[in-house]
Amino acid sequence: MSLDKKRSTLALLALAISAFAIGTTEFISVGLLPLIAEDFNISVTTSALTVTLYALGVTFGAPILTSLTTNVPRKTLLFWIMIVFIIGNGLAAAASGIGILLAARIISAFSHGVFMSIGSTIAADLVPEHRRASAIAIMFSGLTVATVTGVPLGTMIGQQWGWRAAFVGIVIIGILAFIANMILIPNNLRKGTKTPLRDQLKLVTNGRLLLAFAITAIGYGGTFVVFTYLSPLLHDITGFKESTVALILLVYGIAIAIGNVIGGKAANRKPVSALFYMFIFQAIVLLVLTFTAPFKIAGLITIFFMGLLAFMNVPGLQVYVVMLAERYAPKAIDVASAVNIAAFNAGIAIGAYLGGVVTDSIGLIHTAWVGSLMVLGAVFLTGWARSLEKRDAANLKSNPVTE
């Protein structure tokens, strides 16, 4: 292995560790909800605000902070992202009440939004052109590993030593990631490109891009109506012991990782068609969960399929947004990516909030079919986007563009 290649691989590893820390933080409170609720003597739906407000922090933080920091050298920006991340999680571990914990979650969320927006561009810059997709995949593998192991491990630590210990663990990983970034990532990374306001406006005034962002929020968010309350659901409705719940979250994470790989391959050629069928299956699985949740074996099988489909749509949604940005706002591709990350998190916030309303008013079990209805909305929107793509292709055939 050449020295340059070795350096770039180590730098990508540093980014993957950062992505692991940030990915674990995002979903950690899903496994800790019952523990936080018990400790602060609040309802599970109030403790679920740790998921909702975090997601909202990313939603607004990602596009705004990304465009505000384009002139900051990438390595300096990375330095500050990890500092904010460590402070936010340190504050969460020391929180004496739900108010401080929620403020800590919002602080952590700001670092998440910017990292996800610039992390993939840094990863792509570290390697030659032909290895870019693989480099981005290595960085995102940190997120996948976080979903598979970070959340169940955090849940297990929380059950053994209290929920604060889980946040202490995240702070330690954050410090390791910070050191790795400072040592392994080169200083000579290019600056971000400033996107003119006119081009940024194209992103939110173009109907096709708005439709894609809506599909992201509703389609991805539908699962979170249920996923946010998965720990109490498995405990109260299916009847599993707390220690078993952590194990089930691990299986759920493995299903997510498998689904992510399948989703990436499926979306390579026709992302919109692939998304259309993914959302149909997802809506069906969530509806089925309403009936299988009270039964251990049937419930587990359904939850595995729910995990398989939960993140399967992520690569397709990202690819489709970049594809549309290249077509309608070519100077704002970076910002389009950031807005789509915001849309993912808006979906999480809507799903988690809706799940809370459903749990409080009609009960936990009903989160499944409500989530299914939300995903059904994405089926209709994707069907619409698909017919528009077909119309474009037909127009292109009958009026080929001549250079």
Description:
This protein is mainly α and 403 residues long. The protein has 17 helices and no strands. It has helices at residues 3-40, 44-47, 49-68, 74-94, 98-125, 132-161, 163-184, 197-205, 207-221, 224-227, 230-237, 242-266, 271-292, 296-310, 314-328, 333-361, 367-398. It is globular.
Cα distance spanning the termini: 44 Å
The percentage of residues in β strands lies in under 5%
Q: In terms of per-residue confidence, which ranges show pLDDT below 50 for 5 or more consecutive residues?
A: none
Q: How many strand elements?
A: 0
Number of helices: 17
Biggest sheet, in brief? none
Helix content range: over 70%
Global shape:
globular
Strand pairing plus helix content: what structural class?
Answer: mainly alpha
What value does the Rg take, in angstroms?
A: 21 Å
Q: Kindly report the average pLDDT value.
A: 86
SSE succession: HHHHHHHHHHHHHHHHH
Descriptive key words:
single chain, 403 residues, mainly alpha
Q: Helix and strand layout, with pairings?
A:
Layout: H1 3-40, H2 44-47, H3 49-68, H4 74-94, H5 98-125, H6 132-161, H7 163-184, H8 197-205, H9 207-221, H10 224-227, H11 230-237, H12 242-266, H13 271-292, H14 296-310, H15 314-328, H16 333-361, H17 367-398
Helix pairs in contact: 1-3, 1-5, 1-6, 1-7, 3-5, 3-16, 4-5, 4-7, 5-6, 5-16, 6-7, 6-12, 9-15, 9-16, 9-17, 12-14, 13-14, 13-15, 13-17, 15-16, 16-17
